[in-house]
Amino acid sequence: MITFLRFGRAHTLIGTTLSLLAVYLIATRQYGIHDWGMFAWSLFVCLAANVYITGLNQLTDVEIDRINKPYLPLASGAYTIAQGRWIVGVCGVLAVIGSLWYPPYLPLTVLSSIALGTAYSADPIRLKRFHFWAAFCIIVVRGLIVNLILYLHYAKYLGEAASVPPIPPTIWLLTAVIFVFGVIIAWYKDLPDTEGDDAHGIRTLSLIRSKDWVYRAGAILLSFTLLVAGAYALAQHQYYLGGGLIILLVGFGVNTRSLDLTDQASIARFYQGTWVVFFGIYLVFAVFG
Predict the structure, then answer these.
(1) What are the Cα distances from residue 89, in Å, to 113, 229, 271?
(2) Partners of residue 203 on adjacent β-strands
(3) In this structure, which CATH number among 3.40.50, 1.10.600, 1.10.3470, 3.80.10 belongs to the domain 2-288?
């Protein structure tokens, strides 16, 4: 199980789970009813799509991961290439077929995410080679598809009569915050990986600019976003939501204090801490949004 979680990248699976839960709970507060069976099925197919995307990335990055992430299953030999292909193929099929149970927005969510995930990793497109397009893929999936299209999916099956359900302000605020956070993830994920990326011609922003530039630009952007979002929520009398976002801003500041950009272990801890802030955003919206 530990090996499978590493193959699926546990932090992304947690992020997917929390994002689906937060959007679902916001939708149930809008419509006043629950359908946990629909939520569970939606979560299953989205997690399957998640494993497809992360697994495909590892299949195409084995040599790079032997430098950057030698603990991953394919790079370490815990899984063979054949096993990796089998898992990716099964998860992709389960995600696509399973999504058809709740048309049209769940299939749209899964198919668009899989398409972007494939374009991100696989030849001949392999968008991860270009820092702008790599960030674009992450921003669209994490920032737009997961929040907006999944909300439409939940709303439709919680009783919304309109063919295109109206999107409430809380979802727009969440989308704006996560959209920016998608940029941060796209930038920060490459901070620990410069050695392998440079050796294999992956021109990330950390190599084009510098680790210090990426860290500082990302920290300023994320801090500003959390501050503005928190202030907006407070102005709308959503005091717990606004307070939660401000607390997360403080938590991010604490996370930056121990960062040493010359130490790979420190960078890895910082990146993991940034994902904890990402989890926190969805938890705050799940409870108070």
Answers:
(1) 15, 40, 29
(2) 130
(3) 1.10.600
Under a CB-based contact definition with an 8 Å cutoff, are residues 35 and 155 in contact? no
CB atoms within 10 A of CB 101: 12
d(CA 73, CA 54): 12
Q: Under DSSP, is residue 203 helix (H, G, I), strand (E, B) or coil?
A: strand
Q: What share of the chain is helix, strand, coil (3-state, %, to 5)?
A: 80, 0, 20
SS3 130: strand
**pLDDT at position 252, please?**
97
Q: Which residues make Cβ contacts (< 8 Å) with residue 57, sequence separation at least 6? A: 117, 120, 121, 128
The answer to whether residue 196 scores a pLDDT higher than 80 is no
Structure tokens at 288: 């108070």
Burial class of residue 237 (count of CB atoms within 10 Å of its CB; 0-12, 13-18, 19+): exposed
- At 280, the pLDDT band (50, 70, 90 cuts) reads very high
